[in-house]
Structure formats: structure tokens, C-alpha cells
Amino acid sequence: MFAHGNLLFSRMQSNRRPIGIFDSGIGGLTVAHAIRQLLPYERLIYFGDTAHLPYGDKSEAAIQAYSIRIADFLLQQGCKVLVIACNSASSAAYDLLKEYVRTDARIINVIDPMVEWVSARYSHQRVGLIGTKRTVQSGIYKRKLLELNPTVSLHSLATPLLAPMIEEGFHHNKISHDLIEEYLSRPDLADVAALILACTHYPLIKKEIAAFYQGRAAVLDSSELVARAVNGYLQEKQIAHAPEEPVHRFYVSDYTEGFELATRLFFGEQIHLQLQKL
Ligand code: DGL
Description:
The protein is an alpha/beta fold. It has twelve helices and ten strands. Helix content is 48%, strand content 16%. Bound molecules: D-glutamic acid (DGL). Residues 23-25, 27-28, 53-56, 86-88, 132, 135, 163, 199-201 line the site of D-glutamic acid.
């Protein structure tokens, strides 16, 4: 009876703990947005490492060092889940963070939910992937898919110009149209049944990418799948927040007005960013 009471107490405490989400910058707000849509009562603490973006061109060691510092910050805020809302950081630092954080919080990356989705639906088919150099060079999607379903044939292309293009506000115009067409016409991506958007910036150009394929390929973005993975974990552990209007916090390691203005694109509304140097 006493032990049961204690368990109940620790669950109640966990319920109130926030969900930490981080990315190299503000692109991961697409994931934060999906989590907020599915779990409106959860309190979110977002960290965008704008002082070090882009992660896509950085070494694995550098991204690991940044990720550890961010995890420390989010753990200090009492987060019950840490979501790595960045493919580059998920590919470089997920295993390390899991080891580092251990039982203090559950770590959820943006790669595993997508790999599970694709492996269950695209047996014996060609699937394309676009992402940063770091994500593509890591070969992590290929390795994980091989483990789950070796019949899926994955073809990846690094598309490093897309994230800066989106951040500069170039989408749904001639420049974005031409660049998307140039990348997606490459032979690596020919005849794919689906295209994985392996960068959390890309949901902003999902419609343009879908328009390129005109129904010939499904365009897969992970934000909703990640939100569902977070929900699955909270339900399993019975640590979802009780109905209550949450107060979210959004931090960046380097503040500019431009970042704050761009949050509207990625989060659906403009939010206030607080500077937090680590
Ligand atoms: N949002 C990051 C990702 O998903 C890409 C941006 C960057 O290079 O920092 O990989």
C-alpha cells in the first residue's frame, strides 16, 4: 500500500514535468508544433542552438558536445522526455545522449519513428531521402532500415541548400521551385515510391515537393510520427499532463529578431524567444 502510494506520487510529479525539445535552430519548431497539436496540455521547453547552426555541416564530435550541453540544460528544467527535433543531431548524438541521460528522461529522436513507418509500408520498394550532409553521410537511416526491413531500397541525397533557403523565407516562389526541381530530378531519387524529408525544416516545403511528384510518390515528414511516439511513451508510463493550460518556454543560444520573426513560419504563430547561453 505504501509502495503503491509512492508510485502514485512519483507519477503525479512526472505528469507535471515538461517535455524538452531541441534543434540546431528554429526548424525543430515544426516538431514542437506537432507535439502541441497532439498533446495540448503538455508544457514544452524548446531550445534552438542558433549560436551553432547549421548542424548539417558540423562534425559528429561537435554536434555531440553541443547536444550534451543542451541535454544538461533541459534536464535541469526537469524534463521527463527529451525530443531531438533535428535529424543531424539524432544521427550524431542519439546513442550518446541515451547513455548519458539514462533513466532521468526518455530520449526520442526523429529517425526511429520514420524508419518504423517506412519499414512497415514499403517492402520491396525504392524509397528516397533528402537531408543535410551530416544526416546523409551518417548512413543511419540505411542501417536502421536494414535491421528492420532489408527489402526496402533506400536512396539518399544531401540537399544542403534547402535549409538556408527556407530560413531566408524562400519558399513557394520561383527560387524554391527551381531548386526543389533540380534536386528531386537527380538520378539518385528516380522512381521512388516515397520520399523521406529527413530534416525538420522541410515540412515547410512539403506541398512544393508533393507538387513536384504529382501523386507519383508519397512525401513523408516525421513531425506527426514523433508526436505520436511521445504520446505513446506518456500513455505507457501514465505520465501525461492533466488538463491545464500550459506555459511554454522557447530558448535560443543566440538571439536575433530574424529568428523570432521566423518562428511564425515554423510554429504557426510568432513566439517570444529568450536568450540562454550555455
Ligand atoms: N533541422 C536540422 C535537421 O533536421 C537541419 C538544419 C541544420 O543543418 O542545422 O537536420
